[in-house]
Design a protein that fits this description.
The complex is a heterodimer of chains A (382) and B (412). Chain A is an alpha/beta fold and 382 residues long. In chain A, 41% of the residues lie in helices and 12% in strands. Chain A has 13 helices and 11 strands. With 412 residues, chain B is α/β, with parallel strands linked by helices. Chain B contains 12 helices and 12 strands. In chain B, helix 2 runs parallel beside helix 7. About 1% of the residues of chain B have low confidence. The chains are: A alpha/beta (382), B alpha/beta (412). Chains A and B meet through helix 1, helix 2, helix 3, helix 8 and helix 10 of A and helix 1, helix 2, helix 3, helix 4 and helix 7 of B.
């Protein structure tokens, strides 16, 4: 078999070589970063170096960074930790945000948060609020107007949390410029290993207004906000990956061109293919698109057999292939949503991967057409 | 490959702090590496080869871990580490059953994260009994039994103490808890992979395991949660509903694989390793005793894991001792609190006098410790203690037969 075309980088991107090097170096060490002896201090130095690199990724300072076991924990810590009486979360957030409860800010047909609704919701209730809107959607790649969200939220005295897990490494992030108070990151979406993430809190040291409480499991590490011996190798890899941010951003035009090539090829075969978020700001690596008449699960099986790995949206635990909740929220008809697959590109994606996808897409589309024609002729015969 | 080959790089301090963290076994790293690179999928991706491959690896690891403790794979919940496991066990179970029962029994020498969780639960309205320990560091079974009420939902007693290495009477505790229909949680971070643990034989309902204490990496742990009779709990991290809803978040495949392999290695080698470590520990202890008097072993001499010695050296000053032996990476207390100079709460709970608690060293021996390293460390410690004692007026007086405690120091 030819090499497998992995096009599911939004689920997990491949580990960057720089991160692998840092991970393996850290795995070879002795020492708990909390120990005061030499090996302990050596581990601490790696931890603090990585903290500075992760902070720089979003324009924060090292003391703003709380390392966690991943994006889910970071989102939970942000929403449960601030103790705001009211949460306003966009309808297209990840389950790790939605599960924490809150009022839902509606989105439009492209999945973009409705700013007028946000304004009204904040004006209607003056309890201290936390607004959580993601930077970019994990399924469609659609980018939210976070700076405007922050401006509105701050005008009403609300805090702003941004799940930047999918956006990080794909678009440049300046927390201060965007007006974000709390921001979640996940390592494995930017080329670091699984099992590491961070909550970045702007001015954590000086901000008493946040009232941020320790994570669910208390705090003796991470400046009192999160207990437990740090995942040293993971954090080392996270730092190394964050250190590559400039080359990631510089690589996005190449990735965007590959994505556009893919979409153009699909459209050339089937002009009716729907590409979600096509006409709005979208991550350059993501394409969520339909093959009219062929359901998602059939597509996934056929793609896997053809050596192409894609998905229907977020990797979930149910083991079932279900329609995307994000598309349903956007008001997409079930039969259109049921024919969608998400293609997501990454640093290791090349033209060959795209060609493999397009070839598999074309084959399947042709088969589908043949099958539906047969069905039609059977029906008319009947 | 000879796993007992010394890893001692003589330019770096000699590592004797295996209760703080263990180096990742190179065999574990080797198993993990493919899951960083070629087999890099998200184990929850159910739609392609990479996801299935990662999921299969996670399930193999789950089975390896289950096998080490006599559990079934479905009873293994992956977490980010033992701190999270302890939190999830205590808070998760207490919160689930809070309408029926509101009392928890633990012990004063538990790991900080267990004590913190209990304090937290007290603030939520639970009653917590903190059992004292005897001078040997073990709990008194009669006191445990006396503390149990019909409101007791859970007993949480660690299997092995992280500072003094003593092994609590886990089987007896488990038996008593089962008879009284009380859940038994044990913090097994220092025990699993070091001493035989069987959750069925010992009637353990929940057990926390740490990866980096058994030669797997940091950042991975397990909570064992019994299915028959079923234990239920309220999740602390929610989102994608992974780990049967008990713990959301993407599983870190390489770390899970490392944890599984580390457990498989331990299961195979634990017996021989324990014998070797006991020999090294006895050699260490005998070496110290042959050179020095007035050295006290903290914690029971018999009921302790083979890789731990916790010694107090009378008539030396604690900070001076730590500085004198700074080419040995040893601990003067649990790593989590060692940045403070407060005497260890564990030693205080044993009734160790403050001066002696200040001069204690925790010596942790492990898989890569060699005889040569033990001999070097004994020589180093003995030399430093002798040197410090020669400068100590108290030591001089003691040598002259004056009972230091009888002196009434004049204020001036």
């Amino acid at each position: 078999m030819n090499r497998y075309a992995y096009l599911d980088h939004n689920a997990k991107t491949e580990l960057r070589p720089e991160a692998l090097e840092a991970v393996t170096a850290a795995l070879g060490l002795n020492g708990n970063p909390s120990s005061v002896h030499g090996p302990g201090r050596g581990a601490r130095k790696i931890l603090e170096g990585a903290r500075a690199q992760v902070a720089a990724l979003v324009g924060a300072i090292p003391s703003d960074v709380i390392f966690t076991s991943g994006g889910t924990e970071a989102n939970n810590l942000a929403l449960r930790g601030t103790g705001r009486q009211r949460h306003l979360v966009s309808a297209v957030e990840h389950p790790s945000v939605l599960n924490c409860g809150g009022d839902i800010i509606p989105v439009d047909g492209d999945g973009i948060v409705d700013l007028a609704s946000l304004e009204n919701m904040l004006a209607a209730d003056d309890r201290p609020a936390l607004v959580s809107v993601m930077l970019a959607n994990n399924e469609t790649g659609v980018i939210q107007p976070v700076a405007q969200v922050a401006e509105i939220a701050h005008r009403h005295g609300a805090l702003v949390h941004c799940d930047a897990i999918q956006g990080a490494g794909k678009i440049a992030i300046d927390m201060g410029g965007l007006g974000i108070d709390l921001l979640s990151l996940s390592g494995h979406k930017i080329g670091a290993p699984l099992g590491v993430g961070a909550l970045i809190v702007a001015g954590l040291d000086a901000r008493h207004d946040l009232g941020l409480k320790a994570s669910g499991f208390g705090g003796r590490h991470e400046r009192g906000f999160r207990a437990g011996t740090e995942n040293l190798s993971g954090i080392a890899g996270f730092g190394a990956a964050a250190g590559c941010i400039q080359s990631m951003i510089d690589d996005m035009p190449r990735i965007g061109a590959l994505r556009d090539r893919l979409e153009a090829a699909v459209r050339a075969i089937e002009p009716r293919s729907v590409i979600f978020g096509e006409h709005v700001d979208r991550l350059a690596n993501t394409s969520f698109l339909t093959m009219p008449g062929t359901d998602s699960s059939t597509q996934l099986m056929a793609f896997d057999l053809a050596g192409v790995g894609v998905s229907t949206g977020s990797a979930c635990s149910s083991g079932k292939v279900t329609n995307s909740a994000v598309l349903a929220t956007m008001g997409v008809d079930a039969d259109i949503a049921g024919a969608a697959v998400r293609v997501s590109l990454g640093w290791s994606t090349d033209k060959q991967d795209i060609d493999a996808f397009v070839a598999a897409w074309a084959d399947l589309h042709a088969q589908g057409n043949k099958m539906s024609k047969t069905l039609v002729s059977e029906k008319s015969a009947a | 490959m000879n796993t007992n080959e010394s890893r001692w790089n003589k330019d770096a301090p000699l590592y004797l702090d295996y209760q703080s963290t263990t180096p990742t076994d190179p065999r574990v790293v080797e198993k993990m590496l493919p899951y960083f690179t070629q087999k890099f999928g998200n184990p929850h991706s159910r739609t392609h080869h990479y996801g299935w491959e990662a999921e299969d690896a996670v399930e193999v690891a789950r089975a390896q871990i289950a096998s080490l403790i006599g559990a079934t794979p479905k009873e293994i919940i992956f977490t980010s580490g033992a701190t999270e496991s302890n939190n999830l066990a205590l808070k998760g179970v207490a919160r689930f059953y809070k309408d029926k029962k509101n009392h928890i029994i633990t012990c004063v020498t538990e790991h900080k994260c267990v004590l913190d969780s209990c304090r937290h639960l007290e603030m939520e309205g639970f009653d917590v009994t903190y059992l004292p320990v005897k001078t040997n560091g073990l709990i008194d079974m009669a006191e445990l039994e006396a503390a149990m009420t019909d409101k007791t939902v859970m007993v949480s007693i660690m299997a092995v103490n992280n500072e003094i290495g003593v092994i609590q009477p886990i089987s007896e505790i488990g038996k008593l808890c089962r008879e009284r229909k009380i859940f038994f949680h044990t913090d097994g971070a220092q025990a699993v992979g070091k001493i035989p643990i069987n959750v069925d034989d010992m009637n353990i309902d929940l057990m926390s395991i740490s990866g980096h204490k058994l030669y797997a990496p940091m950042g991975i742990g397990v909570l064992y949660v019994r299915r028959r009779p079923r234990v239920r709990l309220v999740a602390m991290i929610t989102g994608g509903g992974q780990e049967r809803g008990m713990r959301s978040g993407t599983l870190p495949t390489p770390l899970c694989v490392g944890m599984g392999e580390a457990c498989a290695i331990s299961e195979k080698e634990m017996g021989a390793e324990a014998e070797r470590l006991k020999m090294l520990k006895d050699r260490f202890h005998a070496g110290i005793n042959s050179r020095l008097s007035e050295v006290y072993l903290n914690g029971d001499a018999e009921h302790r894991i083979p890789g731990n010695l916790n010694l107090s050296f009378a008539y030396v000053e604690g900070e001076g001792l730590m500085m004198g032996v700074n080419d040995l990476a040893v601990s003067s207390g649990s790593a989590c609190t060692s940045a403070s100079l407060e005497p260890s709460y564990v030693l205080r709970a044993l009734g160790v006098e403050e001066e002696l608690a200040h001069t204690s060293l925790r010596i942790g021996l492990g898989r890569f410790t060699t005889e040569e390293e033990v001999d070097y460390a004994v020589e180093k410690i003995a030399f430093e203690v002798e040197r410090l004692r020669q400068m100590s007026p108290l030591w001089e007086m003691a040598q002259e037969g004056i009972d230091i405690k009888s002196i009434e120091w004049a204020e001036h």
